[in-house]
Amino acid sequence: MNDRTGLLPLGDEFSPDKLRLARCAAGRSLAEIGELLGVTRQYAHKLEVNAVPSRAQLARLCEILGVHESFFFAPRRGSVELEQCHFRSVRASSQTLKKTIAAQVEMFELLIDELDKEVAFPTVSFSMLEEPVSGIGKIEQVAEKFRREQGLGIGPLSSVTKLAEKVGVLVVNLADADDKVDAFSLFNKRPLIVRNTAKVNPCRQRFDLAHELGHLIMHQGIETGCRHTEDQANQFASALLMPRASFAAEFPPMRGKYLNWSALKELKLRWKVSFKALIYRAQSLDLLTAEQAKSGFTYLNRKGFTKHEEFDELIPMESPMLVQRAINLLDYSSWKRVLTASGLASDTVSMQYMIEVPVSPLRLVQ
């Protein structure tokens, strides 16, 4: 930069596209950026087209958006498009919200690109369908094949998150995401599942992750979000979490006209799924009639068990660890190289993606 004028020298190429990316990821409007910079909205817009910020404006942008100056002087490597993302609550989420989350994921991928140069992440070890799947029976077979390929047997999965990471999927938390957005997935440079930490139900969390694995396996190159593809991903999740042979053998018989809730409690805790998921699965396998399942859902609704159920607190929440472990392998100087190359600020990584980051040794001196 030119210290005398406060302007960027002609040799440096400021990337308006990267400014737009960082602004979207921060959930800031052009009007907000203009106000924080002390300029008009129109000038803030020009910065995302062809105007070049002054030194003071650049420093302020870095502060506002949680990036280093280096972020703005590297070309955008490839965008995350909404069409690539398997959003679940697509009808309830605004385009602006989805663009913000897609930008946050793209920023995360910048971090992963640099970490990939320092550590070796697991390779993708699951096969994806080349043709569209049709029919519940076929989806059952896809889930059973996945279990066989991964050596999972037919018992409960101890951790869906660990399973996803083991087969090469990166699982990332997004802090403070709108609760209208459930987990979603995409396969850009590598498969990725994004979790919303506002969703704090362990059973829902596990089902969401299994659902997204279904999208990654069955729906590559297929636009999702419609009822058909969402039902398919739900059917895959149900079959993956509760394999039909072992589940059918364990599902308790009715007590007269009523479900055996004490036995269902034990089944819930063993398979780590919700009562509703147990009932849906039982009905799909003809272990319950439609009327019997309806009576079970009515009972749960009457008890107020919609977002949370009884005994959820006895099932542990799962946390992604793959990226955290990769960062833990780095010394501080290596971590600084990753940050400089990606352009992200350390606080952005820790707060936005809920990752513990290396601390400068100088800051540890008392």
UniProtKB/TrEMBL annotation:
SUPFAM superfamilies according to UniProt: lambda repressor-like DNA-binding domains
Origin superkingdom: Bacteria
Signal peptide coordinates: none
One MF annotation (Gene Ontology) recorded for this entry: DNA binding
Residue span(s) of domain HTH cro/C1-type: 19-72
Similarity annotation: Belongs to the short-chain fatty acyl-CoA assimilation regulator (ScfR) family.
Protein's recorded name: ImmA/IrrE family metallo-endopeptidase
Organism per entry: Pseudomonas gingeri
Lineage: Bacteria, Pseudomonadati, Pseudomonadota, Gammaproteobacteria, Pseudomonadales
